[in-house]
Specification:
- The complex is a heterodimer.
- Chain A is mostly beta strands.
- Chain A contains four helices and 32 strands.
- In chain A, the strands form seven sheets. In chain A, strands 3, 4, 5, 6, 7 and 8 form a six-stranded mixed β-sheet that branches. Chain A has a four-stranded antiparallel β-sheet with strand order 11-10-9-32, with no helix packed on it. Chain A has a four-stranded antiparallel β-sheet with strand order 12-13-14-15, with no helix packed on it.
- The longest helix of chain A has 20 residues.
- Chain A starts with a helix and ends with a strand.
- In chain B, a hairpin with a 5-residue loop joins β2 and β3.
- The chains are: A mainly beta, B mainly alpha.
- Chains A and B meet through β1, β2 and β27 of A and α3, α8, β1, α9 and α10 of B.
- β2 of chain A pairs parallel with β1 of chain B.
Amino acid sequence: MKKLILTFLFLITSTSASAQLVIGAVGEAELETSKFQLELPNFSGTLTNEEKLAGAQFISIIRNDFAFYKKKFNTLENTGSDGFSKPSMGSLKKKKISFYTQVKITKTSILNYELETFDINSGKKIVSEKGTLPLGKIRDVAHEVADYIYQSIIGKRSIFQSKILFVSDKTGTRNNPKKELYIMDFDGNNKKQLTFHGGTVISPAISKDRSRVLYSLIRNVNKKKKRNINLRMLDLKTGKDSLVSQRKGINSGAVFMPNDENKIVLTLSHTGNAELYIMDLRSRSLKRLTKHYSPDVDPSISVDGTRMAFLSGRPGAAMIYTSYTSGLEKSVKRISFVGQYNATPRFSPDGREIAFSSWLDNRFDIFRIDADGNNLSRLSKDFGSNEDPSYSNDGQFIAFSSQRVLSRTKAVQNIYIMDRDGEILGSVTKGFGNCITPRWTK
Amino acid sequence: MINSYLQRPLKYFLGHSIFLHLFIIALFIGVGKLLNISFENTRKTNMVLVESSVRIDMVAMPKMTIKELRNIKPLDLGGETGTALKEPPKKAPSENTNKIEFEKKGAKPMSFMERMKLLAKQKAKAEKQKNKGKGSSSSQNKKSAAERKALRDLVLAGNKLSKGSSTVGSGAGAVTAFQGYVQQLTEQVKQNWKLPSYLLNKELRCRIRVYLGGSGNLLRTEVYESSGDLEYDNKAIEAIVNSAPFPSLSSEIRSRASKGDVLLGFPL
């Protein structure tokens, strides 16, 4: 009997022991945050206090730039420089630091910088840069250098040299509201006013080479007849501001074709219904893209210029559609099927996803959807009313405008940046009037 | 000949006529029935075809952000999984795309609305406690734990997948409790699976064998297939260690987990 029980037990254990291993696939790894140490500058020569401050600012701008990529880099506070010589790799490795940058600032007749970045794990010097540091251009040089370091590490362009176009009512008053166009660095510095119409500027767009800006203007005139929404173009190099389209009704929502910047896509309503057209800026000829009895507005073009996302009232509510720019109503596909009111669909630079704002719980919030209609996800929540998303040039960040209600009659709007997963990095405008409609340069 | 017929009594003709008419009627009914059956069959096959080709997605704007969904995941795995996995054949999520779902509300022990109400009540209670300013830290912890459980139940109720009436099977129903557990474990490890840039694009691969205790605690790990790069293997083990503890195991899968039947592939 005992034997029988033993064999029985043996049988049970042997069968369960022979049960197969269950394999779980963890998938591709994400990039680990690398520790990035940026030393304070090493000064040589007799520098004034102002010049020393400029040198410190140079470093702090680079550090601030890298702080935007906080999922990739953990920028460390400086520990005090030990001179401008090859760092001891051993001790840095012990501190688990992956990248180390040191800067030397010298003065001849003008300030010069010398910068080196080391990859501690491979022990190689990956950046060695020299250049001048004019006092008025510290920001530009710092962003350029930061971008160079970023490219040497990651192998792709960063956002550090990008700019954001936006509209602010800063110059207006309560009785004389004005909304003018401005441009700033991606981090909110270097704000510059571009238009001086004294009217209301809406839906701006900037060309990829940053030489031209499109915007629509509603003039502050009393005569209703003259209050048309006209499309204008500003050449940033020559400063020439010209009228592009003043057809009856809406002439707005214009964007440059990314692959051919002599062509623009815009919304026109001169036929009685808002439709999308391609306009050749040289001949001013029109090619119609949509034809439907419901309004089609807000075009966004993918970087290769082949696909277009737009907003249409076809299903009875404002929904996102995509089509091809090669012809009239070419392969029109409905992308969104939910949302009380969707607005401002914007393609990501790789064309894989579309960010848009949608009305939910009595406010607008930013959402993201794959260009094929999958993976609808919410990005912002409990953060005021959020509108007008705009992807950064590398697709990692989204700029948007957020409105805070302060009292029954007062609200303030500012431009914020979040990463593409909805992690908010902070506001880039503050105390500059109400800032809306951010457009990130590509 | 005709005469002989004519001489027959009326009863004879009546009988024949009734028989003939009844026969014809029966024939009609019979043929009709046969036709009806064949129509019915076609209809049924058509319905099956429609069922297998139509997919109904009921979607609303997502209320939760990506961040919130990521944060709720480990909480979601907290312990409910044990009970959820005990009844795998009935409630195993069917991953077929071809399905029509009809949810039976009566079958649920507690409806979605009831759960919502419960959650709201608990929240109100917690707020009252706060206003009183008396609640000791331990009781508050209990409260929040209960709240979390209620929220978890709610989330599970909302995300429940019914089996559907799929006509094409992918064998999703055959997922065992253990396989389901490994799947969740994988998801948890995925959150911590990170590599420095210099290891990211090397296309390395390793497999780690994982031994688990009954409460989901990590007993030990073992490199089953090495990538050839020691640092890569260590990073994979680090990801597992950082993800522990895992959800507690139900009694039937406990022995397999402790014997190290779990193998995690990085990336496959």
